[in-house]
Write a structure and sequence with these properties.
mainly beta; rod-shaped; 8 strands; 3-stranded antiparallel β-sheet
């Protein structure tokens, strides 16, 4: 809360008149808007987590845009699926109970699947051979 004193001075013929008026001005804090998200691959469900705070009062609404052509979300902790790899500018806008608004933007990069089955190998016909996803990421099975 801030207090301001307004003073005015004017001359009325031979009189010097001083007036003052005290006014209380309340300055409410902005939300400190931020978020995190799960690390996932293109085509998989991404979980977004609101980590916003506010020094006093509460956050009462959230508006997420995901940087693609999808509809925005008003959930506090939404999920979203990206159809293709790329850079997506994700934004979270929070609004406090006092009506103060703050937006946080983050460019997120999602890559398509990247599998590594290890080094090339040689084997004989009809001999068993196993390929394991040694350092694969974002795989569901080895074909």
């Amino acid at each position: 809360m801030w207090q301001a004193m307004i003073r005015c001075r004017y001359h009325n013929f031979n009189h010097n008149v001083l007036c003052s008026h005290k006014k209380i001005i309340t300055v409410n804090p902005l939300p400190v808007t931020s978020f995190s998200c799960s690390d996932t691959c293109t085509g998989a469900l991404v979980h977004f987590f609101d980590t916003s705070t506010i020094p006093s009062g509460s956050i009462t609404s959230w508006n997420w845009t995901f940087g693609d052509a999808s509809a925005p979300s008003s959930l506090q902790n939404p999920t979203h699926t990206y159809a293709t790899g790329g850079v997506y500018n994700v934004s979270l806008t929070t609004t406090s109970a006092f009506g103060c608004v703050k937006t946080f933007h983050v460019p997120l990069v999602y890559f398509g699947p990247n599998a590594n089955a290890g080094l090339d190998a040689t084997t004989c016909q009809n001999s068993p051979f196993t390929i394991t996803p040694a350092t694969a990421s974002c795989y569901t099975s080895v074909l």
